[in-house]
Amino acid sequence: MPELPEVEVSRRGLLPHLPGRRLQAVRLPTLKLRHPLPPALTEHVDDKLIGRTLTRIERRAKYLLFDFDSASSHGGWLIVHLGMTGSLRLLPLDRPAGRHDHADFDFPEFRLRYSDPRRFGALAWHDGPDVENHPLLAKLGLEPLDEPFDGAWLYRTTRQRATPIKQLLMDGALVVGVGNIYASESLFRAGISPLTPAKSLSRVRCARLVAAVKETLAAAIEAGGSTIRDFMHTEGSGYFQLQCAVYGRAGEPCRRCGGTVRQLRQGGRSTFYCPGCQR
Protein backbone atom coordinates (compact mmCIF):
# COMPACT_ATOMS: atom_id res chain seq x y z
CA MET A 1 0.00 0.00 0.00
CA PRO A 2 1.40 3.44 -0.88
CA GLU A 3 2.23 5.31 2.32
CA LEU A 4 3.38 8.88 2.87
CA PRO A 5 6.94 8.31 1.58
CA GLU A 6 5.73 6.56 -1.59
CA VAL A 7 3.23 9.33 -2.27
CA GLU A 8 5.91 11.97 -1.72
CA VAL A 9 8.26 10.11 -4.07
CA SER A 10 5.49 10.12 -6.67
CA ARG A 11 4.97 13.87 -6.20
CA ARG A 12 8.67 14.61 -6.58
CA GLY A 13 8.84 12.44 -9.67
CA LEU A 14 6.11 14.50 -11.34
CA LEU A 15 7.48 17.93 -10.41
CA PRO A 16 10.10 18.22 -13.19
CA HIS A 17 7.55 17.37 -15.87
CA LEU A 18 4.06 18.76 -15.27
CA PRO A 19 3.79 22.13 -13.45
CA GLY A 20 3.45 24.98 -15.94
CA ARG A 21 1.82 22.77 -18.59
CA ARG A 22 -1.73 23.15 -19.85
CA LEU A 23 -4.16 20.25 -19.64
CA GLN A 24 -5.39 19.31 -23.11
CA ALA A 25 -7.72 16.36 -22.61
CA VAL A 26 -9.20 14.11 -19.93
CA ARG A 27 -10.36 10.52 -20.36
CA LEU A 28 -12.39 8.91 -17.57
CA PRO A 29 -13.62 5.44 -18.58
CA THR A 30 -14.42 4.55 -14.97
CA LEU A 31 -17.00 6.69 -13.17
CA LYS A 32 -16.65 5.04 -9.76
CA LEU A 33 -13.55 4.18 -7.76
CA ARG A 34 -13.85 4.09 -3.96
CA HIS A 35 -16.51 6.77 -4.47
CA PRO A 36 -18.34 7.98 -7.59
CA LEU A 37 -16.35 10.62 -9.43
CA PRO A 38 -17.63 14.15 -8.74
CA PRO A 39 -19.62 16.10 -11.37
CA ALA A 40 -16.66 18.50 -11.72
CA LEU A 41 -14.75 15.66 -13.40
CA THR A 42 -17.60 13.98 -15.25
CA GLU A 43 -20.12 16.67 -16.26
CA HIS A 44 -18.15 19.93 -16.03
CA VAL A 45 -14.64 18.84 -16.95
CA ASP A 46 -14.46 21.30 -19.86
CA ASP A 47 -15.05 24.23 -17.49
CA LYS A 48 -13.07 22.94 -14.54
CA LEU A 49 -10.01 21.34 -16.10
CA ILE A 50 -9.60 21.44 -19.87
CA GLY A 51 -7.33 24.30 -20.94
CA ARG A 52 -6.20 25.10 -17.42
CA THR A 53 -2.56 25.22 -16.37
CA LEU A 54 -1.26 22.95 -13.64
CA THR A 55 0.54 25.44 -11.43
CA ARG A 56 1.84 23.18 -8.65
CA ILE A 57 1.62 19.73 -7.05
CA GLU A 58 1.33 19.45 -3.29
CA ARG A 59 0.79 16.60 -0.83
CA ARG A 60 -1.40 16.36 2.26
CA ALA A 61 -1.03 13.09 4.16
CA LYS A 62 -1.42 10.44 1.43
CA TYR A 63 -3.36 12.73 -0.91
CA LEU A 64 -1.75 14.31 -3.98
CA LEU A 65 -3.08 17.79 -4.73
CA PHE A 66 -2.92 19.20 -8.27
CA ASP A 67 -3.50 22.95 -8.43
CA PHE A 68 -5.27 23.90 -11.67
CA ASP A 69 -5.39 27.72 -11.55
CA SER A 70 -7.08 27.54 -8.14
CA ALA A 71 -6.64 31.27 -7.55
CA SER A 72 -8.58 32.14 -10.71
CA SER A 73 -12.27 32.05 -11.52
CA HIS A 74 -13.61 28.45 -11.78
CA GLY A 75 -10.17 26.99 -11.01
CA GLY A 76 -9.49 24.47 -8.28
CA TRP A 77 -7.68 21.37 -7.11
CA LEU A 78 -7.69 17.80 -8.38
CA ILE A 79 -7.31 15.52 -5.35
CA VAL A 80 -5.88 12.02 -5.87
CA HIS A 81 -5.66 9.20 -3.34
CA LEU A 82 -3.88 6.03 -4.49
CA GLY A 83 -5.72 3.69 -2.15
CA MET A 84 -4.13 0.26 -1.78
CA THR A 85 -3.01 -0.45 -5.35
CA GLY A 86 -3.16 2.85 -7.22
CA SER A 87 -0.32 4.45 -9.16
CA LEU A 88 0.34 7.50 -11.30
CA ARG A 89 2.60 7.18 -14.33
CA LEU A 90 3.83 9.48 -17.06
CA LEU A 91 3.39 7.84 -20.46
CA PRO A 92 3.52 8.71 -24.17
CA LEU A 93 0.32 10.31 -25.46
CA ASP A 94 -0.40 7.34 -27.71
CA ARG A 95 -0.18 4.67 -24.98
CA PRO A 96 -3.52 2.76 -25.03
CA ALA A 97 -5.40 2.14 -21.81
CA GLY A 98 -5.43 -1.26 -20.14
CA ARG A 99 -8.01 -3.00 -18.02
CA HIS A 100 -6.99 -1.31 -14.77
CA ASP A 101 -6.41 2.20 -16.17
CA HIS A 102 -9.16 4.52 -14.95
CA ALA A 103 -8.11 8.08 -15.81
CA ASP A 104 -5.89 9.83 -18.34
CA PHE A 105 -4.86 13.49 -18.12
CA ASP A 106 -3.14 14.64 -21.32
CA PHE A 107 -0.56 17.43 -21.30
CA PRO A 108 1.77 18.41 -24.12
CA GLU A 109 4.25 15.53 -24.52
CA PHE A 110 2.94 13.45 -21.59
CA ARG A 111 -0.10 11.47 -20.51
CA LEU A 112 -0.60 11.22 -16.74
CA ARG A 113 -2.39 7.94 -16.11
CA TYR A 114 -4.09 6.76 -12.96
CA SER A 115 -4.19 2.96 -12.64
CA ASP A 116 -5.74 0.97 -9.82
CA PRO A 117 -6.45 -2.79 -10.03
CA ARG A 118 -8.61 -2.85 -6.90
CA ARG A 119 -10.22 0.58 -7.37
CA PHE A 120 -9.80 1.59 -3.72
CA GLY A 121 -8.35 4.97 -4.65
CA ALA A 122 -10.21 8.23 -5.16
CA LEU A 123 -10.39 11.24 -7.47
CA ALA A 124 -12.03 14.38 -6.10
CA TRP A 125 -12.29 18.08 -6.91
CA HIS A 126 -12.24 21.23 -4.81
CA ASP A 127 -13.25 24.64 -6.19
CA GLY A 128 -11.10 27.60 -5.27
CA PRO A 129 -7.80 27.98 -3.42
CA ASP A 130 -8.66 26.68 0.07
CA VAL A 131 -8.21 22.96 -0.60
CA GLU A 132 -7.44 22.29 3.08
CA ASN A 133 -11.18 22.75 3.74
CA HIS A 134 -12.22 19.86 1.51
CA PRO A 135 -14.00 17.16 3.57
CA LEU A 136 -11.29 14.62 2.75
CA LEU A 137 -8.60 16.87 4.24
CA ALA A 138 -10.28 19.06 6.84
CA LYS A 139 -9.92 16.68 9.81
CA LEU A 140 -6.43 15.36 9.15
CA GLY A 141 -3.75 15.62 11.82
CA LEU A 142 -0.29 17.16 11.72
CA GLU A 143 2.20 16.44 8.97
CA PRO A 144 5.03 14.47 10.63
CA LEU A 145 7.74 16.22 8.60
CA ASP A 146 6.53 19.73 9.46
CA GLU A 147 7.78 21.86 12.36
CA PRO A 148 4.55 21.77 14.47
CA PHE A 149 5.09 18.03 14.96
CA ASP A 150 7.72 18.20 17.69
CA GLY A 151 8.49 16.71 21.06
CA ALA A 152 6.58 19.36 22.98
CA TRP A 153 3.43 18.73 20.91
CA LEU A 154 3.68 14.95 21.37
CA TYR A 155 4.16 15.36 25.12
CA ARG A 156 1.10 17.61 25.43
CA THR A 157 -1.01 15.34 23.23
CA THR A 158 -0.23 12.15 25.12
CA ARG A 159 -0.81 13.29 28.72
CA GLN A 160 -4.32 11.84 29.05
CA ARG A 161 -3.94 8.93 26.62
CA ALA A 162 -3.33 5.39 27.83
CA THR A 163 -3.34 4.08 24.24
CA PRO A 164 -0.17 2.16 23.32
CA ILE A 165 2.15 4.61 21.61
CA LYS A 166 2.30 2.70 18.31
CA GLN A 167 -1.45 2.95 17.87
CA LEU A 168 -1.40 6.64 18.71
CA LEU A 169 1.28 7.25 16.07
CA MET A 170 -1.04 5.69 13.49
CA ASP A 171 -4.05 7.84 14.41
CA GLY A 172 -4.52 10.06 11.37
CA ALA A 173 -6.59 12.56 13.32
CA LEU A 174 -3.44 13.35 15.34
CA VAL A 175 -0.57 12.83 12.93
CA VAL A 176 -0.80 11.65 9.33
CA GLY A 177 1.17 9.21 7.25
CA VAL A 178 2.98 7.19 9.92
CA GLY A 179 1.79 3.84 8.63
CA ASN A 180 2.38 0.43 10.15
CA ILE A 181 5.88 -0.10 8.79
CA TYR A 182 7.10 3.37 9.70
CA ALA A 183 5.59 3.29 13.19
CA SER A 184 7.40 0.04 13.99
CA GLU A 185 10.67 1.30 12.54
CA SER A 186 10.44 4.69 14.29
CA LEU A 187 9.84 3.07 17.67
CA PHE A 188 12.84 0.84 17.14
CA ARG A 189 15.02 3.85 16.31
CA ALA A 190 13.78 5.60 19.44
CA GLY A 191 14.24 2.54 21.66
CA ILE A 192 10.59 2.63 22.79
CA SER A 193 8.38 -0.44 23.13
CA PRO A 194 5.23 -0.30 20.99
CA LEU A 195 3.27 -1.37 24.09
CA THR A 196 4.25 1.70 26.10
CA PRO A 197 1.19 3.70 27.24
CA ALA A 198 1.43 7.05 25.47
CA LYS A 199 0.86 9.05 28.65
CA SER A 200 3.88 7.46 30.34
CA LEU A 201 6.38 8.93 27.87
CA SER A 202 8.66 11.58 29.30
CA ARG A 203 9.51 14.82 27.51
CA VAL A 204 12.88 13.38 26.57
CA ARG A 205 11.37 10.20 25.10
CA CYS A 206 8.74 12.22 23.20
CA ALA A 207 11.47 14.34 21.64
CA ARG A 208 13.46 11.21 20.78
CA LEU A 209 10.43 9.57 19.17
CA VAL A 210 9.55 12.62 17.07
CA ALA A 211 13.13 12.75 15.81
CA ALA A 212 12.97 9.04 14.99
CA VAL A 213 9.71 9.45 13.03
CA LYS A 214 11.18 12.30 11.00
CA GLU A 215 14.41 10.37 10.36
CA THR A 216 12.58 7.20 9.35
CA LEU A 217 10.25 8.96 6.90
CA ALA A 218 13.07 11.05 5.46
CA ALA A 219 15.21 7.94 4.98
CA ALA A 220 12.31 6.17 3.26
CA ILE A 221 11.77 9.11 0.90
CA GLU A 222 15.49 9.30 0.18
CA ALA A 223 15.62 5.57 -0.52
CA GLY A 224 12.79 6.04 -3.00
CA GLY A 225 14.67 8.81 -4.74
CA SER A 226 16.75 6.37 -6.74
CA THR A 227 13.57 4.77 -8.11
CA ILE A 228 11.75 7.95 -9.14
CA ARG A 229 12.53 7.43 -12.83
CA ASP A 230 11.31 3.84 -12.82
CA PHE A 231 8.35 4.73 -10.63
CA MET A 232 7.08 7.27 -13.14
CA HIS A 233 8.03 5.75 -16.47
CA THR A 234 7.51 1.98 -16.38
CA GLU A 235 4.63 -0.41 -16.02
CA GLY A 236 5.84 -1.56 -12.60
CA SER A 237 4.76 0.16 -9.42
CA GLY A 238 8.33 1.00 -8.44
CA TYR A 239 7.68 1.21 -4.69
CA PHE A 240 10.99 0.96 -2.89
CA GLN A 241 11.55 -1.63 -0.20
CA LEU A 242 12.73 -0.07 3.03
CA GLN A 243 15.61 -1.99 4.60
CA CYS A 244 13.72 -2.57 7.81
CA ALA A 245 15.38 -3.11 11.16
CA VAL A 246 12.40 -4.96 12.68
CA TYR A 247 9.35 -4.89 10.40
CA GLY A 248 8.71 -8.28 8.79
CA ARG A 249 11.66 -9.85 10.65
CA ALA A 250 9.92 -11.85 13.40
CA GLY A 251 12.18 -14.62 14.69
CA GLU A 252 15.30 -13.10 13.14
CA PRO A 253 18.21 -11.61 15.09
CA CYS A 254 18.07 -7.93 15.92
CA ARG A 255 20.64 -6.05 13.87
CA ARG A 256 21.53 -3.93 16.88
CA CYS A 257 21.73 -6.31 19.86
CA GLY A 258 21.47 -9.79 18.36
CA GLY A 259 18.30 -10.65 20.28
CA THR A 260 15.20 -12.08 18.63
CA VAL A 261 12.73 -9.78 16.88
CA ARG A 262 9.18 -10.46 18.05
CA GLN A 263 5.76 -9.98 16.50
CA LEU A 264 2.43 -9.14 18.12
CA ARG A 265 -1.00 -7.84 17.08
CA GLN A 266 -2.13 -4.31 17.88
CA GLY A 267 -5.36 -2.89 16.57
CA GLY A 268 -5.59 -5.67 14.02
CA ARG A 269 -2.12 -4.93 12.62
CA SER A 270 1.19 -6.73 13.00
CA THR A 271 3.77 -5.01 15.17
CA PHE A 272 7.46 -5.97 15.12
CA TYR A 273 9.93 -5.00 17.84
CA CYS A 274 13.05 -6.01 19.72
CA PRO A 275 12.33 -6.46 23.46
CA GLY A 276 16.04 -6.03 24.20
CA CYS A 277 16.39 -2.65 22.49
CA GLN A 278 12.91 -1.25 23.09
CA ARG A 279 11.70 -0.44 26.59
In short:
This protein is α+β, with helices and mostly antiparallel strands and 279 residues long. Helix content is 26%, strand content 20%.
CATH superfamily of the largest domain: MutM-like, N-terminal
What structural class is derived from the secondary structure elements? alpha+beta
Radius of gyration, CA atoms, in whole angstroms: 20 Å
Low-confidence parts, pLDDT < 50 over ≥5 residues? Answer: 225-240
**What is the architecture of the largest domain at the second tier of CATH?**
Alpha-Beta Barrel
Number of helices: 8
Number of structural units classed as domains: 2
Shape verdict? elongated
The percentage of residues in β strands lies in 15-25%
CATH topology of the largest domain: N-terminal domain of MutM-like DNA repair proteins
How would you write the strand order of the largest sheet? 1-6-7-5
The main β sheet shows up as: 4 strands, antiparallel
State the distance separating the first and last CA atoms. 29 Å
CATH class value of the largest domain = Alpha Beta
Strand and helix layout:
Blueprint (H helix, E strand, L loop, with lengths): L3 H11 L10 E3 L11 H4 L2 H4 L5 E7 L2 E6 L7 E6 L5 E5 L9 E7 L2 E6 L6 E6 L23 H8 L6 H5 L10 H11 L12 H23 L2 H6 L28 E5 L2 E5 L6
Antiparallel strand pairs: 1-6, 2-3, 3-4, 4-8, 5-7, 6-7, 9-10
Descriptive account of the structure:
With 279 residues, this protein is of the alpha+beta class. It has two domains: 4-133, MutM-like, N-terminal (N-terminal domain of MutM-like DNA repair proteins), CATH 3.20.190.10; 151-273, Helicase, Ruva Protein, domain 3. It is built from eight helices and ten strands. The chain has helices at residues 4-14, 39-42, 45-48, 151-158, 165-169, 180-190, 203-225, 228-233, and strands at residues 25-27, 54-60, 63-68, 76-81, 87-91, 101-107, 110-115, 122-127, 262-266, 269-273. The strands form three sheets. Strands 1-6-7-5 form a four-stranded antiparallel beta sheet. Helix 1 (4-14) packs across helix 7, helix 4 crosses helix 7 and helix 6 packs across helix 7. It is elongated, with a radius of gyration of 20 Å. The model is unreliable at 225-240 (pLDDT under 50).
